[in-house]
Design brief:
The structure holds three protein chains of three kinds.
Chain A: H1 9-27, H2 29-33, H3 47-58, H4 73-79, H5 114-122, H6 124-127, H7 146-160, E1 167-169, E2 175-177, H8 184-199, H9 205-212, H10 218-228
Antiparallel strand pairs in A: 1-2
Chain B: H1 3-31, H2 46-49, H3 62-66
Chain C: H1 11-39, H2 52-55, H3 57-89, H4 97-122, H5 136-158, H6 167-186, E1 189-191, H7 196-199, E2 210-212, H8 216-251, H9 258-272, H10 287-299, H11 301-314, H12 320-324, H13 326-349, H14 351-357, H15 361-391, H16 398-431, H17 443-448, H18 451-481
Antiparallel strand pairs in C: 1-2
The chains are: A mainly alpha, B mainly alpha, C mainly alpha.
């Protein structure tokens, strides 16, 4: 800062570092101390939902769709209750997005159905005239990566204490348990069972064949994830 | 003292430091034409203009070694 | 060999100049494709239905941002460092075999890292965090490249002849430290393979997958502390380093005020880091962080304009150079765009403005004022200035350069005007209510109305890309067919017709 600093590169670098690190220290660290606690009714994702979330990320859905409802009347009218910090407690990574080329999806599970998603993902323009969203027909035949989803869940449980297999308080006073399998085989079985429920509401023959064959198409995982967004 | 109080103190002293520090720095720069080693600040611009490898440095590092 | 006088050695600078051009073409071409995909969605399957997943908007978007940021811009930063660093420290790379080795190693690792990043993003391996999409193995490679650059910076400083560090060197050091800190903290993640043991399996899922150390709101806070400051330390700080060297050198004018540069440097360092909160206004991060982000964004105008005004005043009494030299035109327009976008940014950070602007195209427009007008122009100008000295040849064509300047300027104007209109239209339509208090428009209405602006934006981007091809051609011809120079030009770069 004062003439001599520019002549002493090491001290100069230290000075720069302290100056730029200061903001992070004051601004970010305090918030971490009180890491966001989950709101009542917020559950961890199931294996199939995590697999679907990975499909969402892989295809960059978050580049056009936000998951953050701001506290304005226009937004709550359109998308539902504004977002609360605790609702994101199990979101690793967060998927707020930065651009709303398409509508917000924070609570899409409240007003869209499996059938709607099935038709829409196959050909968006047929469902929404003038839509500029690309179609995602390949998701109906590609297989979801259940193993990696399971690995992510185990990581969540082991390193971050996400409460799988534990009672989670719900809004109506009851509790629910989100199951986490003990092995890959178990995880596959759980995911398939959940996938069958979703697929039973779908019409696509490829999807039905693949599920009958004991595998999970990416579209089924994705729809399970979208339906969980409430 | 919890983290929030710590942050609040950090923030407070920072503002004090900034106001005092940066204003005195601005005043210092405004007041002095030369830095303490006797070089006019503006001569340092020559570092960009006279930058051929044969050009004489504004403040050669070898000066110190000689002393 | 023994008796040859010592010269600056630009071997590594030349290598990075090449990647600047190549990654620039790649990143900007993808950008233009993306722009037109929004206007004409049919382009999402431009390579046929079977390749649809590789050409869909969502998959390509991170490739565009990362290719222009970490490909084009970072190459430009490295190229100019290996040029400017030697000159202002008055020491040649040829004097140290070690530094030469580090420089080349850094280059090759960088190229491998970028190739791996491109392939993995195409395949859909992404963490989804903007400008930090790479999965953990690539993150490690990036850290190694960065550390090598640090060795190179401080190594060169260690053997310097000029005692005092020139302004540009401050900014390069800040770039190195800032990006290192930000990148490390934002990419804290646990590879899911590490959990394998806990469950008693031997092999579980993909290697290319990790879980962020932070959840939800905290993750957002760290991400935008990073995201905002990545802009600071990749698109602002190193570009200021360039202009502080290249504008005075090309115009032959000393910096208007060295003192002002001191003040704006420390001001910028301090203030910039606080402003990240403005990406999260009205979100679920604590209110005081949002307010702080807003306020510091406004304060940020001061140090930003400090540098920009310093640049414009450097040209005081020398404005005829702007008229006569296209190279000076590029730099003066770059600093003008810098002023423009550092004013626009704080305006968008005001809470009530942000309520309309956030999530809209106006933000995209703002980013591109800065990246096309400021970053793009300044890096191209730097390369134009370096080329005659590095290749010891006259710049191939002045008229081509002037044409490029006007085409690209027109492109930028198309870009930001269309994004202004589209962003504000979008923001206003989202919030419009009818007389009964119901929403006036469905979402698709707000999409359909934007079509003409998207088409116009694509055209603007295309003009800029065309200009970039002209730039590439000009540099290539300079390298191969420019008139040979006997001695290094002191200031104004010699240009052929």
């Amino acid at each position: 800062m004062f003439h001599w600093l520019e002549k002493h590169p090491f001290l100069f670098a230290v000075g720069v570092f302290v100056t730029i690190a200061f903001a992070g220290l004051i601004e970010i660290v305090p918030n971490f101390a009180q890491a966001s606690r989950p709101t009542i009714g917020t559950k961890p994702y199931s294996t199939l939902e995590i697999a679907g979330r990975q499909v969402y990320i892989k295809n960059g859905c978050n580049t056009c769709h936000s998951q953050l409802i701001r506290p304005f009347k226009a937004e709550t009218d359109r998308y539902g209750h504004y977002s609360l910090s605790g609702e994101y407690a199990y979101d690793r990574p967060f998927l707020w997005g930065s651009k709303r080329t398409g509508p917000d999806l924070m609570r899409v599970g409240n007003y869209r159905t499996t059938e709607w998603h099935e038709n829409h993902m196959m050909d968006p323009v047929k469902i929404v005239q003038g839509s500029i969203m690309p179609a995602y027909p390949w998701l109906f035949t590609t297989k979801a990566d259940i193993e990696t989803a399971f690995a992510e869940q185990v990581t969540d449980q082991e390193f971050f204490g996400v409460p799988y297999n534990k009672p989670i308080p719900m809004k109506d006073g009851t509790t629910q348990v989100v199951k986490l399998a003990k092995s890959i085989a178990g995880a596959n079985a759980d995911a398939l069972a959940e996938a069958k429920k979703v697929a039973s509401k779908m019409k696509n023959q490829d999807v039905k064949d693949i599920v009958a064959h004991g595998e999970v198409p990416e579209i089924v995982a994705l729809i399970a994830y979208l339906n969980s967004l409430k | 003292m919890d983290v929030n109080t710590f942050a609040a103190y950090g923030y407070f002293f920072l503002i004090i430091f900034l106001v005092v520090g940066s204003y005195s720095y601005i005043y210092h720069l405004y007041k002095n034409r030369k830095d303490s080693s006797g070089v006019d600040y503006e001569h340092y611009s020559d570092m960009a203009l006279k930058d051929d490898i044969g050009d004489a440095p504004v403040k050669p590092i070898s000066d110190e070694k000689k002393k | 060999m023994e008796n040859r006088p010592l010269e600056y050695d630009y071997t590594v600078a030349k290598m990075f100049m090449l990647t600047t051009v190549v990654f620039g073409i790649v990143g900007m071409s993808i950008g233009v494709l993306l722009a037109f995909e929004l206007a004409f969605p049919g382009l999402n399957t431009i390579l046929g239905k079977s390749a649809a997943q590789y050409t869909a908007f969502g998959r390509l978007r991170p490739l565009h941002t990362d290719a222009v940021a970490f490909g084009f811009t970072v190459s430009g930063i490295f190229a100019t460092w290996y040029y400017v660093g030697q000159r202002v420290l008055k020491v040649s790379m040829a004097e140290s075999k070690f530094l030469m080795f580090i420089g080349k190693l850094q280059f090759w690792l960088y190229v491998v890292g970028v190739a791996a990043a491109v392939v993995s993003l195409f395949m859909g391996y992404t963490t989804s965090k903007e400008y930090a999409e790479f999965e953990w193995p690539i993150d490690i490679a990036i850290v190694v490249v960065w550390v090598l650059w640090g060795v190179s910076i401080f190594g060169l400083i260690g053997i310097r002849r000029e005692k005092s560090l020139y302004i540009s060197v401050w900014y390069y050091i800040a770039t190195f430290l800032g990006v290192a800190m930000l990148y490390l903290f934002n990419n804290m993640e646990i590879p899911t393979m590490l959990a394998t043991d806990a469950i008693g399996e031997t092999n579980m899922g993909s290697w290319m997958h990790s879980v962020s150390m932070y959840a939800g709101t905290n993750d957002a806070l760290v991400q935008w502390w990073y995201g905002h400051n990545a802009v600071a330390f990749v698109f602002t700080v190193p570009i200021i380093a360039m202009i502080y060297y290249f504008l005075p050198k090309e115009s032959g004018q000393a910096i208007y005020s060295y003192k002002l540069s001191l003040l704006s440097f420390w001001g910028l360092m301090f203030v910039y880091l606080w402003a990240g909160g403005h990406h999260l206004l009205y979100s679920t991060v604590p209110d005081w962080v949002q307010t702080m982000g807003s306020i510091f964004s406004i304060v940020l105008i001061l140090p930003s304009w400090g540098s920009a005004i310093n640049m414009l005043l450097t040209m005081k009494g020398e404005w005829q150079q702007v008229a006569s030299s296209p190279l000076i035109k590029f730099m003066v327009l770059a600093s003008t765009f810098y002023m423009f976008s550092t004013l626009e940014g704080p305006i968008q950070a005001i809470k009530s403005v942000n309520a309309i602007a956030h999530f809209t195209d106006w933000i995209v427009g703002h980013v591109h004022d800065g990246t096309l007008g400021w970053v793009g122009f300044m890096i191209m100008a730097s390369l134009f200035h370096m080329a005659p000295r590095v290749f010891k040849r006259e710049l191939y064509s002045k008229s081509l350069m002037a044409t490029q300047f006007w085409i690209q300027t027109l492109g930028i104007v198309f870009y930001f005007t269309s994004m202004w209109i589209s962003g504000i239209t979008q923001g206003m339509m989202w919030r419009a209510h009818d007389e009964y208090g119901n929403l006036a428009y469905s979402f698709i209405d707000t999409v359909n109305v934007l079509h003409p602006y998207y088409a116009l934006r694509g055209t603007g981007g295309l003009l800029f890309l065309i200009g970039f091809f002209m730039f590439s051609y000009n540099i290539y011809k300079t390298m191969t067919a420019g008139k040979r120079l006997d001695s290094e030009p002191a200031n104004a770069s010699p240009m052929g017709a």
